[in-house]
Structure prediction request, 140 residues.
Amino acid sequence: MGPLRKLTGAQAHLFAAVCHHYIGEAADGFCGFASPDKVPIFSHLSRAQRLKLVADVAVGMLCEDEPLPPDTIQHNSAYRAIIEFLFTVLSLENDTLNDIDYDDVGEDLLNFDEEVWARRKRTDEELEEFRVKEALIEHR
Prediction:
């Protein structure tokens, strides 16, 4: 069964970030979900088909003026694959958190020169990255 409602707020930001991350990795040549045991239908599609389905699901779930993604087995498997991708990324992040030396956490904030940043306007790319990070922090 596919999605039943549009995503809003932090959920929408997280879902958009995961879709963007998946599309970025697929564009770099990473073939996510190559193993059929995770999401069998989605895994057997070509890279172009997977990218198209992820884009369709993202637009349907995030854009107010667009209808929800069609209730097809391909779109439902793409939705499931995006959720699986999210859990994979989170588990990898969790595994790497165990390797962090917590004595260094916050050092970048202590060395942060606020006067330089106060006078400098952020670029659109930096602003978008900041918003995604804030949305992820808000979601946690």
Q: What stands out?
A: The CA atoms of residues 97 and 105 lie 11 Å apart.
